[in-house]
Amino acid sequence: MQQGGQPSSTSLRLCAHQYVVAAAGRTFAGSAGPRQPGAKKRRAKVKSVPTARRAAVEQLLRVEEGAYVASVAGLAGGQSASTKQHILTDRDARLVTELVSGCVRWQRRLDFVIESLTGAPVTRLDPPLRQLLRLATYELLELGVPHHVISEHVSLAKQLMHPGAGAFANGVLRNLARLMAEDAVPRPAHPTSATLTLQQRADLIGIAHSHPSWMVQRWLERFGEQETLDLLRWNNMRPAGHGVRVAPAVVDDALLHRLAAEGVTAEPSRFLPRDFVVVRRGLQHLLAKGLLAARGFQVQDESAGLVVELLDPQPGDVLLDCCAAPGGKALYALQRLAGQGLLLAMDVHAGKLRRLETAAVEQGRAGQLEVHTADLRDHVNALMAGPPAGPGLQSCDAFDKVLLDVPCSGLGVLSKRADLRWRRSPADLAGLRLLQAELLEAAAQLVRPGGLLVYSTCSIEPQENEDQGIGMEPL
Ligand SMILES: C[S@@+](CC[C@H](N)C(=O)[O-])C[C@H]1O[C@@H](n2cnc3c(N)ncnc32)[C@H](O)[C@@H]1O
To answer: What is the 3-state secondary structure (H, E, C) of 237-255?
Structure first.
């Protein structure tokens, strides 16, 4: 790699941080009830009955309106407004998370079943009825709830909407129960016929495994059918646990016993056994009681920790985290500096950088942190044009180690982010690829000769990973 016209031995570590936490398998659920043309859109009116099922429908409606599953399911920290409103028990909160994640993950397949039963697109249903039918289909088909529970779904449809919606839900769900008993639930055709085009195979597999066709087609071309099916099944598994970084505490028997006494099942991380635990059970409880924040612990995937492990911060290092917000990796890197050295955290997002600053103060790490709100590309351009007028980088080639954790498609973490598959499009990939290339070019200017640049994504797409490193010297 050339830096400022000088040949350099800068090392590049490419790292797609996904596939670290193993997960347990599962399958799916569904909905229907065509809205009459011209009928007024009704919105769910919340009355009484603070059940997990009702909370799940409300949260599914929020996801439909654009909220992230992680935020409505409470995994982003604390219970969501809706679950707080209903004062759900920890057990119910866990159930809501399971129901919401499952319905979103299996949405395409659920909709296929519902549309087969109703003969109409789910988009013609009022949103509360659509989400209720998805939920009920998920519970019946995937979770295997007994068929008498259908009467509870029907009551909920009446409460949320009107008696007609209840009658409609009853008809659809009783029909589904009958087909289940006859082992005749509608399924997409098997994609074996040699006459099928790639697009047609992608459609059938996409319905059966509930992924967008464009993603399936992309992977069929790259991996072939068997590996693609393995990948889709992996994406449909629920995470078997959640990583929690406990550093600067150390994972030892005493810590595990303290967690167990609070009803939390956790074990040391396979990959970072000193600093991370994997919580199998009880995360909602820790979040709801504020116990993580109180101890300086943070929900953080082990794979994110491994990126910092690759960066290998040593006391005295001068580090740059180019895309630092919201700051999970920066906080871990600060801990590894152990009070000696400096980390400059840059990001375009000022608000999210402030959260990092606050957390660093709370954890007693503020002395090693500088933050700088900037577009990395503009900043490097300005730096190349002349000496900096304000805070931030003082020169090119200034940093021992640079972390570039770029914005990416997230296609390597679909099992952990149930809604992401429906949010992404091929156009996103093209735009991200260009942005990543520009950021990589800029970040490379800032590493001292002989220093280290770690580039990381949560994607498995070569365009976002190894193809970006062309022309750089791999480790
Ligand atoms: C994957 S996230 C980084 C996550 C972060 N490293 C962490 O561990 O919490 C990507 C970040 O890149 C930032 N970003 C996007 N474009 C940027 C740019 N041109 N310059 C600097 N930061 C940028 C986004 O605001 C976002 O916070």
So the answer is: CEECCEEEECCCCCCCHHH
Distance, in Å, from the CA atom of 69 to the CA atom of 399, rounded to the nearest integer, reads 37
User: Among 368, 372, 318, which Cα is nearest to 345's?
Assistant: 372
> What confidence tier does 73 reach under pLDDT thresholds 50, 70, 90?
low
Asked if residue 100 lies in contact with residue 68, where contact means CB atoms within 8 angstroms, the answer is no
Q: Are 33 and 129 in contact (CB under 8 A)?
A: yes
ipTM: 0.99
Query: Is residue 324 annotated as involved in ligand binding?
Result: yes
Please work out whether the CB of residue 349 comes within 6 Å of at least one atom of ligand 1.
yes
- Hey, what are 267's tokens? 């074990």
pLDDT score at 393: 55
State the Cα–Cα distance between residues 124 and 114, nearest whole angstrom: 12
Residue 255, judged by CB atoms within 10 A of its CB (0-12, 13-18, 19+), counts as middle
Can you read off the two tokens belonging to residue 345?
Answer: 């955290």
Task: Provide the CB-side half-sphere exposure for 139 (13 A, CA).
Answer: 25
Active site residue 458: yes
Backbone phi and psi for residue 99, each to the nearest 5 degrees, phi listed first: -70, -45
Band of pLDDT at residue 389, cut at 50, 70 and 90: low
Q: In a mutational test of the pocket of ligand 1, which residue from 298, 319, 323 has the highest number of ligand atoms less than 8 Å from its CB?
A: 323
Which helix (H) or strand (E) segment is 280 a member of? Answer: strand 276-281
Q: Assess whether the C-beta atom of 91 lies below 6 angstroms from ligand 1.
A: no
Judge whether 188 is annotated as a binding position. Answer: no
Q: Is the CB of 414 under 6 A from ligand 1?
A: no
Tokens encoding 156 = 């909920």
Amino acid letter, residue 195: T
In angstroms, the CA 427 to CA 353 distance is 28
Report whether residue 248 contacts ligand 1, using a CB cutoff of 6 Å: no
Alpha helices in 363-417 (DSSP H): 376-385
pLDDT of res. 89:
73
Structure pTM?
0.83
Residue whose entry in the numeric block shows the structure tokens 């004062």: 87
Does the annotation place 375 within a ligand binding site? yes
User: In angstroms, how far is CA 276 from the centroid of its own chain?
Assistant: 19
What is the enclosing helix (H) or strand (E) of 2?
Answer: strand 2-3
Residue from 316, 339, 27 nearest 187 by CA:
27
